[in-house]
Amino acid sequence: MKLSKGVILVSGGLDSTTLMYLFRRERIEFVPLFINYGQHCAKHELDTLKQVIPIEYKDKIEILDVSCIFQYSTSRFIKPANLWKEQIKADDLYIPYRNVLLLTIAASFAQTLGLNKVYSAFINSNHAKEIDCSSEFFNKLDNFLSEYGSVKIEMPFRNFSKYEVAKLGIELKAPIGKTFSCQASEEIPCGACPNCVDRLDALHRISQEFRKNV
Asked: What SS3 state is found at 35?
């Protein structure tokens, strides 16, 4: 995929951080967009983002607050759980139409800037149960936005695994060790939610490969 100037949805997570550093390597300008949709870890995500974003973009982060949309949600991604007392399942983290919200907001924002590309670092995931996480959904949304507007959704990592993204991040010298993407905990990664498991598995596999080559 050929990259061009556009808006990148950023969160301080491993995937979006890697994507920013890919743009940096290709010397392509981007607008980092952080959306607070009420996730309990929003403050920590933003603080992390400021630590991992390429230094020249630290003061260029655009922040949109739409947190009221999910104010009545019972999702444990919105309402933090007491991890010492409650057992959290993947279904408890579901947020209805989250990706629809993020991508359409980003597309609307990009169009106001005169840009026609929105980049998301979403990847294929074996734990994603949401209807708006499938390739079929993303294809339909992309076609809809392109047909009824000028903005195209690009997902360079759609067919990547977390391991492949992490490996690319290391090659790009992105500070992936500082990234944060826990769904269940506000500040300290729980190590057990789907996002944490994917991240830890990817980094563990890379560390094993490193040891073999030393």
From this structure: strand
